Protein 1
Amino acid sequence: MRARLRENWNRLNGRDRIAGIDLARGLAVIGMFAAHLLANADQFVWAEPATWSAIVDGRSSILFATLAGVSIGLVTGGAVPLTGTRMMVTRWKLVLRGLMLLALGILLILTGVPVYVILPAYAILFLLALPFTGWPARSVLWAAAGTAIVMPFIQPVLDALPVWGSLFGEELDAGIGWHYPFTVWIAFVLAGLGTARAGIVRATVQVRLLVVGSVLAAIGYGLAEVPPPTTDAYWWTVWSAQPHSSGLLEVIGSGGFAMAVIGACLLMCRMRWVKAIMLPLRAVGAMPLTAYTVQLVVWAVVALLLLGDPSDLTGFVALEPFWPMTIGIVLGCTAWALLIGRGPLEWLLERGTRPVGMELTRR
């Protein structure tokens, strides 16, 4: 037992593990559930502390997407992209991982829990990011910036397509995670990928993340206080900074916020005492898929047993489940990480993609 505990402790705190990324992931997972289950303010305003509870709305999932890009960047080489067979094998593994996430996401949707499950969008974003994995940092970051500026102008047109009002429009919406439209959200993934390529373990990169992200957040949220030049509904949509609007100012403000949070987490975890204190949250971030899935499954089971209907959001929120579920998940992830090791779903994804690498390597 001591040997296993020491091994798992070293895995969580060793050089191969970027503690700040785990911390940011843990915050993103818990933030998404806070957005669903807590009574938050309607609008987040920097100058009004009473509204700060709204900070989790939309921004948690954008942070999650940005961290997906960081993860893709790290597994495909970090600061120097992989080449040749190694890159090919890693890309095929990411394809299979994306398909597995899509399948899991659909299963979670079928539980009837009244949330917009992010995993289908997450899976599609994995696939869309693949062509950019061989690019250097500067090119990827420029692609992220270009997408962030252009796509909010196109998104209202895509949202108005007749397909969403068709017979199976609602199922299509859920099945591809359109609440997190990949057409816009690929910008967040590319920002994370570009950050990983820039050398995310370097202190200078971490400081730049914090500074640039804070500036972008200030610009996005600051401009949101200025009305657009016309009362046309299209321009109000494009100019929006509201959560999940996919408006230009949300992309700039919330994308910058995600970058700043990642930078802050990385810098804080350079201090050993902070790194130690944050171990429980880092344990959640080390197994984000498991934590996210378990919370939804527990939600479905409890709501079914106590309310008779897992889709009864009002009834479930009235049970005040956020803190018991969150504390349980944090303690469970911490115990699992220390006593057993990798999260079960993370282990399953790794095992599921291993044969692909072996087969391609043989060829």
Note: The radius of gyration is 20 Å.
Protein 2
Amino acid sequence: MTFELKDSSLLKAQAFINGEWVNGDKGETFAVTNPATGEKLADVVSVGAVETTRAIDAADKALAGWQALAPKQRSEVLEEWHHLILANTEDLAIIMTAEQGKTLAESRGEIAYGASYLKWFAEEGKRVYGDIIPSPSDRRGVVIKQPIGVVAAITPWNFPNAMITRKAAPALAVGCAMVLKPAAETPLSALALAELAKRAGLPAGLLNVLPGLDAPAIGGEMTSNKTVKKVTFTGSTPVGKLLMKQCADTVKRTSMELGGNAPVIIFDDADLDLAVAGALAAKYRNSGQTCICANRLLVQEGIYDAFVEKFTAAVSHFRIGNGVDSETTHGPVITEKAANDIHAKVQQAVEEGAHVVIGGQPGTQGACFYQPTILTNVNDQMRVFREEIFGPVAPVFKFSSEEDAIRMANDTEFGLAAYVYTENMGRIWRVSESIDYGMVGVNETAISSEAIPFGGVKESGQGREGSKYGLDDYLETKYICIGGLNR
């Protein structure tokens, strides 16, 4: 490996089950590689269904003691985990950049973002309130909320730290236990988090991390095991649908944060410089590999040419390369296959009449690189309109009226995030209420934080993560009727 850590013990390659670092029963491993260089970072243990069952059993046994603690005591463990993550930010960022490819600056930002969920839910976990329902008779209705139990989580490679803490923090805060399968591309970040959780005093069994290549075996056990009461997943819509079907047989609770096809709607009256800056951030963050990335830039015809000119000038200053290099603004995409898929979409759009303003080719830096790209002369029949690109490609579409923009924005089965740029207050309300998305940023694309309810509608998922609403998916509501109060 070409990187060094201040604390080398954060680099783990075993599974984490019941508080112990263990090998898989079959002795199998898989290589984790750096997408920027192709270098092998580690041979990580690969587990399957049997180890998953063992982890679920450990989580179930750990529940009673964890739930018996006062919320403040659980909070203190999460606070310490938060502290240790921040104290080890640089090492965690180096690990993330090595296995995921994003720049060190972006990795550091994700570490802070991920830690913020632990801080937030350490406090929110103390505020799981119920209700008293009055009655005209000698009865009272009491509503309490209790932890759902063992939670299975499956997380993606694009945010290998924050997508874990966003799920683990609320679950642990209210008294649940978690069995986690991280993405095979980025298990090292998850394993480092588990090491810090152990150091923070999280009791054995409450967080289990199961790296592995056999996703069907691990996921199949998670969805079929009756001890698991909830499955939470962040990833593609097809996989989310499959998991929901598998969970139906045991009627598990599910929360799904799935695919997106985010529009950025820029009206003639928008602050053009603000819109350009917002679109740049929304489109090219993490080299276009975020679920709320701008997928379609919808620009009103009166400012279309001016926007494309300014947008292109800004993109021309991007520098792609290894994320550890200070001059790099954008790293590789996650795999060579991902780069090839992106190029196929671009080529098809060009064949159908799209014009490449800048980019449009694989990068020369390596097999996982793709040039930041802008496409014009695109239409709503192309794949780049219909499908999530998940790469550094910005198709810029033209619209004429407000109604036209709303129609184009809603012309998708997805509904995660959307962005609107306008100075017209009436239009802000009309458009925000008319577009079918779970989150809308107005004159802003940096919309995510631990304090907001993150999630989508339609085929972008169900449930919300973060904010006070983020506890709901890990709680059951129980009604207790107390009678005989007049005796």
Note: The domain at 262-411+417-449 is CATH 3.40.309.10 (Aldehyde Dehydrogenase; Chain A, domain 2).
Protein 3
Amino acid sequence: MLRTIPNFRDVADVVPGLRRGRLFRSDFVLDPHEDDAKLVIACGLRWVVDLRSPSERQDNPNRFFERTGTPLVHMDVASRGDPEVLARALRSGDGAAGAHALMLEVYEQFPAGALAVVDALSGLIAQGDLPIMIHCAAGKDRTGFVVAALLRAIGIEHELVEADYLASLGRVHERTFAHSREIMSEMLDTPIDEAALAGISGVHSDFLCAAIRSAERRYGSFQAYLQTAGIDRERAQAMRMNLLEG
């Protein structure tokens, strides 16, 4: 785990059969320690895909990758959700229970919000524009779902997809806690308790399953969701050739 980029990793670290050095995921790289920066630069990234919203990018521009000359692609995952619905979910239980309900609501929005992103990213991978790094703010939620969809598209079994997703547990930068504390306190109009903060800042298999079930309900199956995102048999095969060993 990198000290200043705790959620930066090669997806192949967790998913056997993936070619190393092809697909990376991360939290936001703001001001990395010199040693961490060297490790990231050594990956030779062809693209960095930023899933954050325009307002997030305005508040915290991706200056590190701009300085290193790494091409940036902005692919906002439009998954805001109704603020009133989210606040109601957060108030539905005490502490961790309310946070859990909130995150389920957030993840329900991911499939529709990420549809165009999955389409564009799968196209880059199919073309062999690699290595690629995908990130959002914490690198666990939006990034978690998008990476899960890409892994499912190349035939990775659910257990391994979930293992990669859950590998973000405990890899949270302090700025993520601070940001979550601020947002949730505004939503509740009162300071958020630490149990709720931990729940919002973590990952849980229920969250990923909520997103997958949402896709299945809306599109008929997760495979149909991927097809709607432009991943037909030909593209999926090209993705497998560029990401899988052998």
Note: The first helix runs from residue 34 to 42.
